[in-house]
Please model this.
Amino acid sequence: MQDIDELAAELRTDIEAAGSLDDLEAVRVRALGRKGTITHLMKGLGAMEPEERRAAGTALNVLKDETVVAIEDRRTSLRNLALTEQLATESIDVTLPVRAEGCGRIHPVSQVVDEIVAIFADMGFAVAEGPDIEDDFYNFTALNIPPEHPARQMHDTFYLEAERDGAPLVLRTHTSPVQIRHMRSSPPPYRIIAPGRTFRCDSDMTHTPMFHQVEGLAIGHDIHMGHLKGCLEEFARVMFEDDNLRMRFRPSHFPFTEPSAEVDIGCSRKGKELRIGEGGDWLEILGCGMVHPNVLENVGLDPNEWQGFAFGMGIDRIAMLKYGIPDLRAFFESDLRWLRHYGFAPFDVPTLAGGLAR
Ligand code: PHE
Model:
């Protein structure tokens, strides 16, 4: 019988010398396989005298365990070695300048969403989201638009066949349901903006069935119209990069705000050309107001304790105005030539410090 110590030393050397997982497997089969050296020695135990068998059995078991552990260790270090090698060959230098011609472009809507978020984030607003498919309660009822209210017709709603609580589901007609979802899911105060897709059955030069809005909501103990006015003035002046931009707040009506206003910014129209800030004309950009007490009650807030403002504006329209894009429908045609012309460089992320758009 081969000397066990000798065999142990031999195996140790072979295991250490195995340069690949395949080599190592061959060593394992040679020692522990069905016809392996250790297996063979173990089979021989039966023919020994009890005394001798006990001693040899113990030694063989120790050898077997040590071999299994040594192979496992070697396997781990071979794997680590392979990984280190792979990582070294697959490294990329992320500091290399990007090749501009290989880049996609950022869609004007995404760009303007990022700009709007940057401006309101600077005023302490966080981004909130809600689903495109809404139920009647969130899109209408909770917003103080009861079933027979004429505003439901004005919204040109897309109704789905599916129902929830006995009422059809709808594609949300505005981002205002996000107000409700947000207020029902967390305690006041609130300061959020909610950009997203909205849907109305309407299509021409300035309307598409899917468009984008951003909702704003600020609720606290003493938030008033002055704050609303200040926020929106700050927004419009930064957005249109004009510190003296003229604005006017016109009394209006929305079921979910009281009082309500529409906001116009100064512009001039010469023929087809529209310029923001100049001239004596006005252009409507958003709706806003103080959140109606019924809306606060619908989300379980006491209107004697909590108050604040909300606003909603069309993002696509802001993009058209700011970047002089004439036809809204082209926004959603996925024409690459249009995107190359009107799109934005992906690495110019809008920030207030770095500039909103270049
Ligand atoms: N949801 C309104 C719309 O789609 C806009 C709005 C939002 C008005 C919030 C007032 C307050 O027209």
